[in-house]
Amino acid sequence: AGKKVTVEVGKVMSQANASVTVQIGETVILASASMSESSRPGMDFFPLMVDYEERYFAAGRIKGPRFMKREGRPSNEAILISRMIDRGLRPLFPQNMRNDVQVICLPLSLDNENRPDIVAMLAACAALHISDIPFEGPIAGLRVGMLNGHFVVNPTVEEMEYTDLQLVVMGNGERLTNVDCFANDIPDSEMLNAFGFAMDSLAPFAEFFDEIRKEVGKEKVEVLYREGASSDDQEIIEQIKKFIQPRLDKYLFNIPVGTKGERKKVLKGLKDEIHAEFAPKVKNDSKDEAAATSYINMLLGSFFYEYIEEQVTMSILDNDKRVDGRKLDQLRKLDAEIGIFPRIHGSGLFTRGETQILSIVTLGSPGDDLSVETMESDSNKKYFHHYNMLPYSVGDVRPIRGAGRREIGHGALAEKGLLPVLPEQEEFPYTIRVVSEVMSSNGSSSMGSTCGSTLALMDAGVPIKKPVGGIAMGLASDKTRWKVLTDLQDLEDGMGGMDFKFAGTKDGLTAVQM
Question: d(Cα 332, Cα 489) in Å, to the nearest integer?
Fold first, then answer.
């Protein structure tokens, strides 16, 4: 609070759509926003790339081992910052946009007082807002800490060592697009107060960025969004939607469809009916049988699953009816086992519906701790969590190429959720490694990993202070009505919704992410 924020526009990176330098204290981040000239044909998602690029010169340091001084693969810290910024920016682009957009944040100076993640967040938000790239800003980002019972905006690195709360948010003072939080078993009421404080603190940043846009902002360009259907195609799509509507009760809502596999089967049955009804009509319009089938598949690929998710959302809003028959606040069936395998130090198998996590604890000597090198400092971790999600967990077949950004992010979230309940070094000096293997995934495997970690730690004899559990909350919305869902799964995670993960004990919260 009370810190000066300096924004400089367009001094460098003249060929990017926009560039902004943001400085707080002596921490300086340069952010660029760039967009491709055309959209990618056949793309069924928005290709946004956010990269926080580490540069050790910013901290006056030379990287690592003797024979490798160049920055290489992003560290886990850089990946987590990139993901955090991505989650906050992504909802504000047009839904059907298919142009490549890349945001790059480059640290130029670090003062070891003001964390670079928040400065990078502000720079990315400002760059997109003043650029000609379609983006519904302004938004900003900040961190809320709690020191001696009082909330603080953007606490220093030193203050963060003593704070019981690290709440990072992105938004505009009225709405939030991203939440990432570590909490030391904070009560719900205190967390709500922190959110209110964060919202009030965001508004001046968003207003500041709007003033900058009025002075130097570019006019937003018109881009070709996802290729629309031709008038003939659209006519057939509307006919298919009318065909689907009266059959949804039969396939999805009259009888609860309990599992993801069963839902795939019934939706395949619905697709088969569509093919039987419409392929002959298309075939009569100068297409052979193979071409007619391919054409119907192309049309279904352009709208089918989004339309089904939309109808699932409307069923929840209109009738409080979920596809698996649960009430809005009802969990799926829970199951837990410990001590599953011989010789390993501790194990837990946690199952919630079709989400199943096997967590395994290995204990080591203090010398087995994890050395972590970042631009800002070197440190050692005595507790670390690795999350693995292999293709079989969702019934896929694909190459295995090591942990990606998602795996690193989910592992860090589950790790964060357990930190407040771990024993002190003096009480339990051993190094603790937890590995969570996703056996099956359909709804918040990261929170399942939190539950599995608790089971495995207790099985290993680690004297944790309290058990920690985790759950994902969803939101069904048509922009005018909202209903909260407990224990989110597949078809309930549609457009206009939310995936809000909470980890905590019976007394308070330990980690939150949206």
Answer: 10
How far, in Å, CA of 452 to CA of 435, rounded? 10
pLDDT-derived band at 10, boundaries 50, 70, 90: confident
Provide the β-strand partners of residue 23: 6, 28
Which of the four pLDDT bands, split at 50, 70 and 90, describes residue 419? Answer: very high
Band the pLDDT of 284: cuts 50, 70, 90. Answer: low
What backbone phi and psi angles, to 5 degrees, belong to 145? -110, 170
Predicted pLDDT at 367: 95
CA-based diameter of the chain, in Å?
79
How far out from the chain centre does Cα 93 lie?
16
Torsion of CA 199, 201, 204, 207, to 10 degrees: -20
CA 370 – CA 266 distance, rounded (Å): 48
Least confident of 183-187, 250-254, 483-487, 499-503: 250-254
Q: Which two tokens stand for residue 183?
A: 């909490």
Q: For the chain, which residues make up each domain, given as ranges? A: 5-216, 231-319, 334-513
Q: Scanning the structure block, which residue is given the tokens 């308070």?
A: 508
Q: Strand pairing partners for 346?
A: 361
Main-chain dihedrals φ then ψ at residue 160, nearest 5 degrees: -65, -20
Q: Which CATH code is given to the segment(s) 5-216? A: 3.30.230.70
Assigned token pair, 512: 């939150």
Sheet holding 334-338, edge to edge: 334-338, 346-352, 355-364, 431-440, 383-388
Q: Strand, coil or helix: what is 432? A: strand
In angstroms, the CA 361 to CA 459 distance is: 9
DSSP 250-296: IIIISS---SHHHHHHHHHHHHHHHHHHHHHHHHHTT--HHHHHHHH
Higher pLDDT, 300 or 26: 26
Distance (Å, whole) CA 481 – CA 484? 10
Closest C-alpha among 351, 328, 348, 357 to residue 487: 328
Residue 66 pLDDT exceeds 90: no
Q: Is the pLDDT of residue 286 over 80?
A: no
Rounded CA separation 103/88 (Å): 12
Same CATH topology for 5-216 and 334-513? yes
Q: Give mean pLDDT, residues 475-502.
A: 85
- Its CATH class, for the domain covering 334-513, is alpha beta
* Adjacent-strand bridge partners of 31: 20, 105
